[in-house]
Structures are given as structure tokens and as C-alpha cells.
Amino acid sequence: MAETDRDPPRLVYVTAATQAEALMIGRALVEARLAASVNVLQGARSIYWWEGRIETAEEAVLVAKTRAGLVDRLIRQIRELHSYTTPAIVVLPILAGNPDYLAWLAEETSGSGNPS
Q: What is the DSSP secondary-structure string of 80-98?
């Protein structure tokens, strides 16, 4: 059984108030080895309900690549660092991909210890 079968890869989508906040969170996740890689995409326009009203905002999007066993810790870390009361954090399965990349992802997140 391959490592990725036991602890499958995940993609975590997060919005942040600013690019600086997204970069700070992304760097913290990679430094802690909770994510192998984080992409920060600036200039997202969000439209959403908040406290009974439709809001619009310019945000940055953070996309983190991690393993299923690290998701709970990764979410806790994001919530501790995030400025929003209710940050958007959505976890998606990675069903397939470049085997070399997925092996690299598993290797780069293995230094974070056992999943909690």
C-alpha cells in the first residue's frame, strides 16, 4: 500500500482579508510542515451573506496542499492566525495527480509528526 493510500493528499481552500494575511498564514503552515506548498492568489472578488446582508469584498485565496492526517491541525492553525471570525476553510480530496508530486507532498509534510 502506498503512503498516499494510508494518508491521502488533500487540497485546502481558504480566503483571507489581504494578500499579506494569506502569505503570513501560508508561510506558517509550510514552516510547521502542515502543508507542503501553499499558493496565494490575490484579487478574488467575493460575494456572500454575512449577518443578514449581502457583502462584497476583495480577498486573497490560499490553496494549501497537505495530507488527510494533518487537516485538523492545519485548520486549528489557520483559525488561530486568521483575522475573520468565521474563516472559509474547505478541504477537498485529491483523487489523482502526478505520482512524483504526491510523493513529494507526503515527504515534505512528514516532518510534522504523527497526525493528531
A: HH-SSSS--EEEEE-----
pTM for the full predicted model: 0.89
How many Å apart are CA 107 and CA 114, to the nearest integer?
A: 13
| Domains in the chain: boundaries | 3-112
- For 17-71, how does the pLDDT look when each residue is reduced to its tens digit (9 = 90+)? 999 999 999 999 999 999 999 999 999 999 999 999 999 999 999 999 999 999 9
Query: Residue 87 in contact with residue 15, Cβ under 8 Å?
Result: yes
Contact 9, 106 (CB under 8 A): yes
Report the C-alpha gap between 11 and 106 in whole angstroms: 13
Strand partners, 66: 10
Give the whole-angstrom CA distance, residue 107 versus residue 6.
13
Domain 3-112 architecture: 2-Layer Sandwich (3.30)
- Give the integer Cα–Cα distance in Å for 57 and 90: 19
Overall average pLDDT of the 85-104 stretch: 97
